[in-house]
Design brief:
about 375 residues; alpha+beta; single chain; two-stranded antiparallel ribbon; 11 helices; 2 domains
Length: about 375
């Protein structure tokens, strides 16, 4: 096997009578492809469920995985949390405002104008320590606090990077995997080594408008008891999803820690296969698991297998795997890129050059890739 540069992950996941991801009008997200509308789940939706999953394979359970907080209110809710409650507000105010403008830009004191920014645990700890230091130095004097805040702001304005200098995971594990964009400080940006495509149904959309009521239990003697009458959309489908991991980029973002990178890939495989995106949990129970998972390791530019479904196929795993395998075989004949493959499948269809195994087998395969890339010293 050549030195692995990319890990590609393809999956098929079935859902019935669900509303996995809604648009601004409350309807299922859609994608026109191959002359047909498909039901879609956005990459943002998928990533959010994977990173926040409360699961035995959660990312936050990995040893050395620093936490991160994506919010406009991290300074208010994390940096100036419980410890600042009993301190004179006139002392706290200029220090808090200095930190808000340093992190969120000139309009940072206005919550509505702030970017929803990802801050890592190390950055929050740094800001908390600095806030406590400035408050202590002010000694209860509001004017002194204002002067200290002004000087602090000059030193830190538009330089979030200084807050995590030398840190292994400046944006936490979330930033190391999915990246970070800081409009007020481009030097603090983090390139995402995990690239996630929007998942879409391998067939034309299957949707219906669901009429439902909220019954008034105590008004049955007066009328029908239908206190609220509404409609929602429900969809069913077999979704194709695609994820690419830039392995050198992942190692770089994790400070060269091949052990941590391997644990991340191991858990990520489980999350992709087992964690369901979805709204309306109480009324649709949108829980499913991937019926097909293909992982490929190689050193050539990745390529999606979405083209296999440009012409819609039946919403059945065996049919979809057959279409994917046929397209993959054509790519192999044309390009001969030589990826090493492992596959887990509920269908009996053979996948070209793929060794069949369980989810645990695929996760172990992925876990070992960073060690191969890092070499014996890792």
């Amino acid at each position: 096997m050549t030195e692995p540069r990319f890990l590609q992950i393809h999956f098929l996941a079935p859902y019935t009578a669900a509303l996995l991801n809604r648009d601004d009008s409350g309807l299922a997200k859609r994608l026109p492809y191959g002359g047909h509308l498909r039901t879609r789940v956005s990459s943002q939706c998928l990533k959010r469920h994977w990173r926040l999953a409360d699961d035995p394979h959660s990312l936050h359970r990995i040893a050395g995985a620093d936490d991160a907080f994506r919010s406009r209110e991290t300074v208010d809710r994390k940096v100036f949390a419980d410890w600042a409650a009993d301190i004179d507000a006139a002392v706290v105010k200029p220090i808090k405002e200095a930190m808000l403008t340093a992190i969120y830009g000139d309009k940072g004191t206005d919550k509505k104008s702030r970017q929803t920014l990802l801050l890592g645990e190390v950055e929050v700890a740094y800001l908390t320590t600095e806030a406590q230091r400035l408050v202590a130095e002010a000694g209860g004097d509001a004017k002194a606090a204002a002067e200290l805040a002004k000087e602090w702001n000059k030193a830190h304005k538009a330089n979030l990077k200084t807050m995590s200098e030398g840190a292994k995971l400046p944006g936490g594990l979330t930033g190391a995997l999915f990246g970070r964009m800081v409009t007020s400080d481009p030097k603090a940006n983090i390139d995402a080594p995990v690239h996630v495509a929007h998942a879409f149904t391998v067939h034309a959309e299957e949707a219906e408008s669901d009429y439902f009521i909220a019954a008034d239990d105590l008004a049955r003697d007066e009328d029908t008891g239908a206190d609220t009458i509404q409609e929602t959309e429900l969809t069913s489908g077999l979704f194709y999803g695609y994820v690419v991991v830039d392995l050198p980029g992942l190692l770089l973002n994790l400070g060269g820690d091949a052990r941590l990178a391997g644990d991340v890939l191991h858990n990520l495989l489980y999350l992709i296969a087992e964690v369901s995106p979805g709204a309306k949990l109480g009324s649709t129970a949108p829980y499913s698991r991937a019926s097909f998972l293909l992982v490929e390791a190689g050193d050539r530019q990745p390529r999606s297998l979405a083209e296999a479904f440009r012409s819609p196929c039946r919403a059945e795993t065996g049919q979809a795997v057959a279409a994917l395998s046929e397209h993959l075989a054509r790519l192999d004949d044309a390009y001969a890129t030589g990826e090493t493959r492992r596959v887990m499948s509920l269908a009996n269809t053979e996948v070209p050059a793929a060794v069949r195994g369980t989810l645990a087998d695929l996760a172990s395969f992925a876990k070992n890739l960073p060690l191969q890339l890092a070499g014996p010293a890792a």
